[in-house]
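hey m, so remember when u said the tokens were messed up on ur end? i reran from scratch. heres the input so u can diff it against urs
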Amino acid sequence: MHTFTLLFLLALAGSVLLRFWLASRHLAHVQKHRDTVPESFTQRIPISDHHKAADYTITNTRIGMIDLAYDSLLLLGWTLGGGLEWLNNTWGMAGLGALSTGAGVILSAFVIMALLEMPFSLYHTFVVEERFGFNRSTPRIFITDLVKQTALLLAIGGPMIVLALWIMNVAGERWWLYLWAAWMSFSLIMFWAYPAVIAPLFNKFSLLENEALQQRIQALLDKCGFRSKGIYVMDGSKRSGHGNAYFTGIGRNKRIVFFDTLLDSLEPQEIEAVLAHELGHFKLKHIQKRFLSAAALSLAGLAILGWLASETWFYTGLGVSQPSDWMALLLFMMIMPVFTFFLQPVMSLLSRKHEFEADAYAVQQSSGSDLIHALVKMYRENASTLTPDPLYSAFHDSHPPAPVRIAHISGNMSTTTAGG
């Protein structure tokens, strides 16, 4: 067996076994605490909602384990099973040029992957989400979204893939550095364009109309020195009963967005506290820090790809007989998650640090009690488990577990009171 083939199989087996072990721990931990609401939530979360969150989490985790096994088999099928080799040979028979062939291979691989994953997406939306009362989507909306996503892949992804292959072909040994610069430029453009151009293709965004709430929010914005094109409300209820809020965009195109489902469940002072948290991400430059981290990781990744792309064993070890720029890109994108999964706790730790910092900022600028009340409502209405397995959470959760986060906010409240 080829050495790199063995390394790939060992990494895949290791990551899959680790994920299964973590998921098994998570299932056991949530099930063990299903009938007991954590002490800090006993007056806030009814036992019936706690049961629902546990059952929802257990269902999604079990389906995730099946999906993991399925995806792992597909990855083996694409690589050592000859799937990419067949796709490449099929496009090669069309007699197209290198750029057209390469773009065709990559785009068709993406489309086939999406089709192969569709059964899980359909089951999650129309079975799991429906069973727990979250689904608001319809088959028509689901299909329309799929068509739009495919169109965007072709309209935006197609030219970017062609550009990447062209750079790899003409830029010499340092092509990966030029490709990184192009990717960063593209990412910045997408950061800027997403709120105003892409997101509205899927959801309706409208300016907040509640005048009293607007005045309250504007006072907070002025206090925090934040300028944007407005606070927007998204019709999240069109597809789901889940509620959320997020910060998006850069420069003058930055926005804070609330799901309509979230606004319907929160009091004005709680909305202000959630907004203060989102403003914390802006004020503490978390968006810029995350972008710079992503830039550094992508630079390192492309440098590694620049080395691998010139090594014949990289292709033959993964079931591809003919080296090419497009095969290098596809293989790298497919196998990197196998190796980078082991780094997830580090990424989750950094993300949680930002959440803690944004919470602390919110306590300073608004009310910690109102933030806690808002978060508890969000946990309850999103059926978020209050008792995740700590180790599973360390790998998978970008936000701190509910009890840890609430305790952290309470600690900041005490510090603020003592200092002021």
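this time it looks ok to me. The longest strand covers residues 255-259. if urs says something different then somethings off w ur setup not the seq
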